[in-house]
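Open question from group meeting: does this chain pack into something compact, or does most of it stay loose? Before anyone orders reagents, we agreed to write out a predicted structure and look at it together. Recording both the input and the output here so the notebook holds the full record.
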Amino acid sequence: MAVKDETEWRHQFEQAFCVKIFDNNSQLAEWDIVQWDDLYKLGIGRGAIGMDTDYLTSKKMFVYVSQAPLLEYIAHQTKILQALYRNYNTGEGTTFRSGKAVRNMCSGIDGVFGGDSNEVVYSVIHLRSCAKQMVERMSKSSGCHPTAALEMEPEYIKSILRPLGMLKFPIVLITDGKNFDAVRRLINDPEIGQQLRLVEPSVSWIGGDITLAVMSNVFIGNPASTFSGFITKSRLALGFGHSYLFRAQNDKGEWVNTCGDSCVFDRRIMGAMS
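Structure tokens returned:
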């Protein structure tokens, strides 16, 4: 939500997300402040920052896990995400914090497909490097393969795209650039390589990459990545299917889904990432 008129922006933001924005502590005088009984536990082993109440409060909010029933939680999260996408940035206005000019959320799609961006059919692979232990923990809770979404082997990708008839359409790769071997394998694959498109650094940024993935016909991501998780939640909120994060091989060696779409919202599987 870019700022064009600050007063109007505040009003729209507070209404859309049912929140109240405060500028300084004096404005909190008539409001109840939430106290965290176990706040000090988060600061253990964190040195000086572990004594900073503002930091600890922020961290507590970040790792907070809702105890609401799953369907109720999904409905609430979906409403928030839909509000976000009703107010996406189009390149007009400035950011609230720094006052810098905002970028167009559709710039990633336009940068890859140009004038064809309105009608193009494509898939997105999100190749994210993260600690193997994170994926292994996710594997234990969801039943997904412990390394498949981390390595993105060509056969794993084709097990998803071939049944959907998507190997004849563009495949866009969004990556942090740290797993060169995985990128090389995809480029050298005779089926995937001819359709593979890399997002140029000049047009790659978090907002553009998110929209590029959210609007794809098929999204293949990493369940241990908050980026992939947000994209999948956004796709579900906007009514898009064909998001693949939780996959494993059955007894016949076939790749199958191990968890439904709602898994990205399930605290038993995702923990604080839900």
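Observations to bring back to the group:
The longest strand covers residues 123-127.
The mean pLDDT is 84.
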